[in-house]
Amino acid sequence: MARRSAPEVNAGSMADIAFLLLIFFLVTTTIEVDSGIASKLPPPLPEDTPPPPIKEKNIFQVIVNAENRLLVEEEDMDIKNLTNAAIAFLDNGGGTDPRNACTYCRGAKDPESSDNPKKAIISLVNDRQASYKMYLAVTNELVRAYATLRDREAKRLYNETFSSMTNRYSEWPATEKESPEYLELEERIKKVRELFPRNLSEAEPQNRE
Description:
The protein is an alpha/beta fold and 209 residues long. The protein contains five helices and five strands, in the order H-E-E-E-H-E-H-H-H-E. The chain has one domain (56-202). A five-stranded mixed β-sheet has the order 3-2-1-4-5, covered by helices on one side. Helix 3 crosses helix 5. The longest helix has 27 residues, at 132-158. Keywords: Cell membrane, Membrane, Protein transport, Transmembrane, Transmembrane helix, Transport.
């Protein structure tokens, strides 16, 4: 009896199929990327530059410890209260000397708190064991405090929020950036930033008890 030959499988198109599958998975696969905070760093200072003198009352200390506990001015605080606490510090206007007085501040004018927004510094320190998620949440709350105060002053001076002004500025056509309107908007943004400069100091992560 003659042996029946097995049918051959045509593998000529297998390479094409594998290539198509590879493209499919490359297109459909999503890669998780950690979210971050856009921040412009100041230019480096010469090594022999002495630190400027800072009064202790002009420093608002925020600490995130290894257990992700939030300590503000050495006291426990819920993160939902952090923005309002930062606003109260930045907007305090406790300076009595004409050089330090803040005419646009609406805070409590507590002499034991910050003199004016230009001298007020928020110091953020994170423990090395603190989670990145907690770090982002705390930083977002502090940045929101500056944004809230800038919006208020922009609304008072120009009847437009600061966020709206910066959005218009970033979307301005490149061919019209020499126009008087663009230059005026640029100057307004600069003025509002000067009223509430983002003096947010982030120290190197530490191992804290």
